[in-house]
Amino acid sequence: MTLRNDALVKAAPLFTLLPEWVKARDPEMVGTIGQVEIFPGATNVVPGRCRFVVEVRSQRSADMVHIRELLKAYAAGREGWRVETILEKDGTPCAEPLIQTVANAAVAEGLSCIRMPSGAGHDAQSMAAAGVPTGMIFVPCRRGVSHSPDEWIEPTQAAQGCQVLLRTLLGLIDHA
Q: Per the confidence metrics, is the pTM higher than 0.85?
């Protein structure tokens, strides 16, 4: 084992450092390493190369830049490491009047409502960039799991989400 030069083992500490850096910077910021590739990728061959993708999302660009700089500094001290920026986008704020209209609709439906920042871009990011007031309605998933095959909401929850959307649209029409 002392003669091995395992690229995955060398990368592994960063897999736990990233969440620590992100939480320390801003508890509402998120950071994920959701894709890891090792080469050659055979069961009985020590990985000679490891490639992984880091994604960070924040409402503030400065937070994302800060994490990128930490990653670059970490990589600079390690032979064969490099950091490439694949895509960089600023956070997109939702329209406050729309957020309030959604909250009012949820309350009118007798539902709880939590305002929360979201790193989700979806179409909202493109619409907001085009000058369209934008907001999102999220329906809570079972056990808080989303973007996974285990994601699930009850049909009644889907109907409640639709009712919130309908009340939101009617509320916007009333104030137009």
A: no
User: What are the beta bridge partners of residue 39?
Assistant: 49
What is the amino acid identity at position 51?
R
Domains and CATH numbers, the chain: 7-76 (3.30.70.360), 96-174 (1.10.150.900)
- Whole-angstrom Cα distance, residue 41 to residue 77? 25
Model pLDDT for residues 128-172, shown as the tens digit of each residue? 889 999 999 999 999 999 889 999 999 999 999 999 999 999 999
Give dist(CA 109, CA 36) in Å, integer: 43
